[in-house]
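Researcher: Please translate sequence to structure tokens.
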Amino acid sequence: MSHHSQTYTVRWAELDPNGHMRHSAYADFAADQRVHWLASLGFDVARFAALRLGPILFREETKYLKELHGGETIRVEGRVVSQTPGGARWTIEHTIYKANGQPAAIVTVDGAWLDLGRRKLTAPPAELAAAMQEEEM
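Model: Translation complete:
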């Protein structure tokens, strides 16, 4: 996802009592960026449903670097850090940037593809594995 990013505005609902963006909002923005990126590759929610395939996470880690506040414009950029041959398992790193370009946080997720019928891990369609491989850095 080296070339895919989404821009957002931090909303009131994403703030904690201290006026900072709450911890879980970082994960929400990273997840939304992943969904937009996958849709840009031709794998939107409807296509995943038709394939009976879904992404699952094993680990999600956030490193907080700078505070974010309500009304700030942020950019979330993601990239595939690694994946297994065939693309069954993967690691994606999201960097959340402040409007001035400073990194505010790094969200790293380890995940895999789940066959929703069998409830077992599976390899994705070759087209998706290849697209993710092209984005790997």
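Researcher: Any highlights?
Model: The domain at 4-135 is CATH 3.10.129.10 (Thiol Ester Dehydrase; Chain A).
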